[in-house]
Amino acid sequence: MSDFVFKEIDTSSTVIESNLVNYTQNLTATSLGVQSKKIVSGSISSSYWDSLNVLFYTSGSPKYGSELKFTAPSSNMSIKPTRGKQFLTKYHGYPSSSLIIIASQYYGEKIKEGSFIFTDLNNSSSINTTIKPIIRDDGFGNLYSTNANLNFGTLTASSAGTNNSISSSENYVGNIFYDKGLAIITETGSWSGSIDYSDLATNYTLKFDSQHTITTQEYNVTLLPQDYNLTTNYSIRHILSGSSEPLTLSTSTMASTFTGSDFQPYITTINLWQDGDYDTPVIQATLPKPVRKSDKINLRFKIKLDI
Fold it and tell me: pTM of whole model > 0.85?
C-alpha cells in the first residue's frame, strides 16, 4: 500500500487548447469607460487629431507628398485585411470628426469584425422621427450608415463598380480600429436633411461583440488502486473508551468506524504543486461532492483550468 502524499502527474496526457469567446456588449454614451470627443483640426481637441493622424491616417493622405515613408501602409496602425480594404481618405481635408473611445474592459482583445452598431439618440429623420441614425462596420474597418440613403444599395458591390457599395470609398462615413477600441466618424456631409454626421455621437448606444481567447489546460490525475488509501484527516481520530485524555492532534487512535477492512478515504480536494515547492499549490480543484477512493480499480480525475 502506497502512503505517499505527493505524486507526479503524467504530463504527456496534459491537453492545452485555445478557444475564441465572444460576448455581446450593450453600452451607452454614459457607460463607465466610454468617452466621446469632438475634434476640429487645429482647434478643438487638436491633439487627438494629431495623434489619430500619426497612428492611422498618414498612408491615406496626399499631404506628405514626396515623403514616401509616410505613404506606405506599414507606417501606421491602420487595418490591412486579407480581403476587402480599409479606406482612410476621409480625414485630411475634413474639418471635424467625432471620436468614440471604448475601454478594453469591454472589448477584450478586440471588437469582433462586423458586429459594431452605433445608434444616435439625439437626432432623427425629418421624414420619420422614429428613424434614428444607425452606423455599422463592414468588417474591414469602415463605418457606414444603414439608413441614411436607401439608394446606396447592398453591402457588397456589384460587378458594375464599387461605388454602389454602402461602405465603399465614396459612401463610408468613418473608421473603426477593432483592437484599439476606437471608432471615428469623419464624414461631415448630411445624414438626412439638416442632420449632418458631425451632429452625431453626443448621446448614443453601442452594441458589439467583444472577443477573448480562453486557454484551457486539462490535467489528468490517475490514482492507482494502491495509491492514497490512508488519510490524515483529524476527524477520524477518537480517544479510547474509558480514557480521560482529551482529543488532540497527537491522538493516535482511530474511531472504530474507520478501522474495518471496507474503510476507504474520500477525496474532496486535489492540489497541484510546482515541483520542489510544496508550500502553496498552484492549482486547487475542489470536487462538487466527496468521491470514495477505490482500492480495486484506477480512478482518474480531469482537472480543467481556463485562463
Answer: no
56 three-class SS = helix
User: Which of 20-24, 165-169, 302-306 has the weakest average pLDDT?
Assistant: 165-169
pLDDT tens column, 43-72: 778 889 888 988 888 765 555 555 555 555
Q: What are phi and psi of 256, to 5 degrees?
A: -60, -25
pLDDT tens-digit series, residues 186-234: 998 889 888 999 999 999 999 999 999 999 999 999 999 999 888 878 7
Helix (H, G, I), strand (E, B) or coil at 40: strand
Task: Determine the Cα–Cα distance for residues 1 and 153; give it in Å rounded to an integer.
Answer: 77
Residue-level pLDDT at 163: 54
Helices (H) and strands (E) in the chain, counts: 2, 15
Cα diameter, the chain:
102
C-alpha distances in Å from residue 137, one per residue of 68, 74, 81, 112, 132: 30, 23, 14, 10, 17
Q: Identify whether the C-beta of residue 210 lies closer than 8 Å to the C-beta of residue 116.
A: no
Return the pLDDT at 67: 54
Domain spans, the chain:
11-17+215-306, 21-211
Question: Residue 58's closest CA among 91, 85, 84, 93?
Answer: 91
User: Which of 109, 161, 166 lies closest to 137 in space, CA to CA?
Assistant: 166
Report the alpha-carbon distance of residue 132 to residue 90 in Å, rounded: 23
d(CA 44, CA 241): 88
Residue 85: per-residue pLDDT: 87
3-state secondary structure 68-115: HHHCCHHHCCCCCCCCCCCCCCCCCCCCEEEEEEECHHHHECEECCCC
Distance of alpha carbon 135 from alpha carbon 185, whole angstroms: 9
